[in-house]
Amino acid sequence: MEKIHVCSTADLSPGESRRVDTSPAVAVFNHDGSYYALADLCTHGNASMSEGYIEDDCTVECPIHTARFCLKTGKALTQPANEDLATFDVLVEDDEIYVMVPEGAAA
Ligand code: FES
């Protein structure tokens, strides 16, 4: 696995998300001070989950057709998405956020 720098914790406030240009891209979310990372591309279509809406129940809603995914597990919870999103580990070290991606995924 490769450790990719995302941003500082000061640059990702609760309720915000950020796209990381790995290949494939990853979306990192801050939900109430906890960080989660999912595949950025919605499993239903060509939507960037980093542009989705973080909900109170620790889910993210796709910005195009409003399918919801669990931020913790990537599970597709509502239609029209049927396939889960991949998840990635997030690390915080010295107030900097990193995501762990497979070897070779760094852009
Ligand atoms: S593109 Fe995400 S639900 Fe359709």
What does this structure look like?
With 107 residues, the chain is mainly beta. The protein has a single domain (2-101), classed as Rieske Iron-sulfur Protein (3-layer Sandwich), CATH 2.102.10. It has no helices and 10 strands. It has strands spanning 2-8, 17-20, 26-31, 34-39, 53-55, 59-61, 68-70, 87-88, 90-93, 96-101. It has a 4-stranded antiparallel β-sheet, with no helix packed on it. A 3-stranded antiparallel β-sheet has the order 1-10-9, with no helix packed on it. The two termini are 14 Å apart. The structure holds FE2/S2 (inorganic) cluster (FES). FE2/S2 (inorganic) cluster (FES) binds next to loops.
Distance between the termini: 14 Å
CATH class: Mainly Beta
Average residue-wise pLDDT: 97
Structural class: mainly beta
**Number of DSSP helices?**
0
Task: From the alpha carbons, calculate the radius of gyration and give it in angstroms.
Answer: 13 Å
Strand content: 35-45%
Helical content class: under 10%
Spell out which ligands are present: FE2/S2 (inorganic) cluster
Largest sheet: 4 strands, antiparallel
**Biggest β-sheet: strands ordered side by side in the sheet:** 2-3-4-8
Secondary-structure element order, N to C: EEEEEEEEEE
In the predicted model, the low-confidence regions spanning at least 5 consecutive residues are none
**What is the third-level CATH name, the topology?**
Rieske Iron-sulfur Protein
Total number of β-strand segments?
10
At the fourth CATH level, what is the homologous superfamily? Rieske [2Fe-2S] iron-sulphur domain
Number of domains: 1
Global shape: globular
Known CATH architecture: 3-layer Sandwich
